[in-house]
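Researcher: First entry.
Model:
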Amino acid sequence: MDKQPIDNTKESRLSAQQITRNFDDLHPPLNAQQAGMEASRCLFCYDAPCVIACPTAIDIPKFIRQIATGNDVGAARTILSANIMGGTCARACPTEILCEQKCVLAKGEDHPINISALQRHAVDPVIAAASSHLFARKPETGKTIAIIGAGPAGLSCAHALAVLGHDVQVFEAREKPGGLNEYGLAAYKMVNDFAAREVEFVLGIGGISIEYNKALGRDVFLEQLQEKVDAVFIGIGLGNANSLDITGESLNGVQDALQFIADLRQAKDKSALEIGQQVIVIGGGNTAIDAAIQAKRLGANSVTLVYRRGLAQMGATAWEQDLAKTNGVVLLEWSKPLKIQGKTKVQSMVFERTKLENGKLLATGDEFVLPADQVLVAIGQSLENQILGDLKTKYGKIKVGDDGQTNICGVFAGGDCIASGEDLTVQAVQDGKIAAKGIHNYLGGGNV
């Protein structure tokens, strides 16, 4: 995949035109000829390893063969039957460590099939059409399911249940649906309001209604819902941003990286956003990378991403790390934050060098200071345990069985709030699918 160059030539602040260019689509779509040529490279493997590597088990060789034979709509149906949010996953899924990494062509001297681009080629026209839907609802069952959270897990579960004929009432804490697809992914990965258009497509099946600004534990309560509906699905994600717990974290200029990304995603005019000139990002995951690159693309003179371990231990993939470097982000490893300095606003940060010794991370006592006027913190999120009531947790997340059911009968959960795998959109979609089947079975519908 190409790495979009950054336009950062400036004497002072970037112009609106420069910023617009910097947030163009990271991966421009393939045209018909390009898609046909790429699809023709596929070996259509039996027991394809790319399918096994996909959390939603999309039949990748089948949809690529459909593209190769000119059946793009059929390819979209194959994709969306397995992953109703295949459009977002084609843009944001780390295919370099999932399906494309397993492509047999990569085992030789060739490069893997560009599966994500082909997936987008098939799905995007269907999402854009908006006038038709590839799926039809079964006869109504008279059953109603409440879903808490309109993120990927909740929407996946809602769509699967609606197809089966159930009515679904979704309660969303924010003003828009989509969860991290809408608020948490880099703007250059999700251009032209794609997340919103994808949600519109998902809701096109019918039988799904959404109420906004309804948060669990504030406006919606599990016990009350259980009295009104036949089953409940919880897909609330992880609502608490982890803090550094160091001196100076309350200074002006220190911000949660996810909130920074959300503000940027929702801004109608990105050039109006304030950005520091010496930005430090703390963290080693994809959120940290997204925040760092976007700070640079907004016009920061210097952006340094600081991680307490080495690059090999970072949650962000090597491809994402390389993208950050291409965009002028400095990756500083083996450095632990000690304190943030300044009177009312950030002026600098103090770090201490670290090292691994017998598998344990140790501080070396070697301290150094970096100037900064903005600090973005991306060290993960945690579950809001105070709103869970009698729900049991494990490893800090809601505990569920193989069918997605919690310890409370008729209450299911999925997405980042459970420990099912990587915190990825594609895994959340799969969690929603699993829970939908579990709910349908629980309601007496039988296995599907």
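Researcher: Second entry.
Model:
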Amino acid sequence: MNCYFNPVQTIQGPGCLARLPELLHKLPQDQRRVLVIAWSEEALQHPVLAALLAPGCEFEGRSLVFTASNPTVEQLFDTWESTRDFAPNVVIGVGGGTILDVAKSLCCLYGCPLKDTDDLRARIAAGGLKPAARWIGVPTTAGTGSEVTCWATIWDPEQDAKRSLESKENYAWAALVDPELAQGMPVRLAVSSALDAVAHAVESYWARSTNAVSRALALEAIRTIMGNIDDLFSGSIEAHDAMARGSMLAGLAFSNTKTTACHSISYPLTMHYGIPHGAAVALLLAPVLALNAPAVQDPDALMDALGVNSAAMLQRRIAGLLIRSAQPASLEGWGVVHSDLAHLAGLGITKGRADNNPVTLTPDCIEAMLESIYCMDAVPCMR
């Protein structure tokens, strides 16, 4: 029997970033060193953040812009090294999943003597890192749900690995999910982010570690996103609000279950071919659904939430959304070399994700799934 737990104080809705000063005022006077890490200088110009960082503010604030995607071990070490002397009490991450993962990771590194990147790599692999600071998640994309989970993805291309830094003590102190921050997002990114959130929810629903609360959250997340995703093409605040709510609910769902085959298989696609994470997991949803269907509890409820009646229909739906947002809907379209499929399949079994899938994964079955989306019959190959 799996239990549900999530301690994050979550505030969601248009304009809710204005609640940030109220939260920070709850800190003791001697714990008000605040580091804001954001995806751009423009993000730091938001009136709430600018006031927090202004000279003479009652909080001792510093800021850092982190522009890389898919943070590596080396980048995390460099960021820790450049901020460790400040030793913040609170780290505020303002951005997509990359920024939130870096923010929560830093909290586990302050107060931890690190010699070099190899030392950091070893400590992440060994586990047991504990937070020495609090963090607040302010997502500017609607997809990762990282603001309500306690783990961070750190990439290690040098060793052809994806690492996870996690601690049950490192849930966010608070999450401010403000859809107004996502309004300037390109449609391409908005769609792939939303599909990433759908994958989080679907995988939470069928995970071996699933529970009743996570399944209920997952179904609501899927309904919310898939029922409103088409409105992203008009850029309405209502659509962005729906994506923000859906992503948050999906995050709350998989914060207890972790992900499964879609994420496990997607990691080498992103690492070796640069396929954006959301698009990579979205391409895998339909073939993994076909594989897992016999082992899914109440599959009709899942299909109903997705708005489809089969894996083939889901494949067409996702392909349509990707193509409409100017993204390839096949591995060939993303530049994957066909002769690499067997190698990618072997890399697709990720500990903690593959073994959480309800159906056992093998390199052969993964290769078959990759073959099925290499150049899909349901859509034109995008050469």
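Model: Note on the second entry: The longest helix spans residues 237-257.
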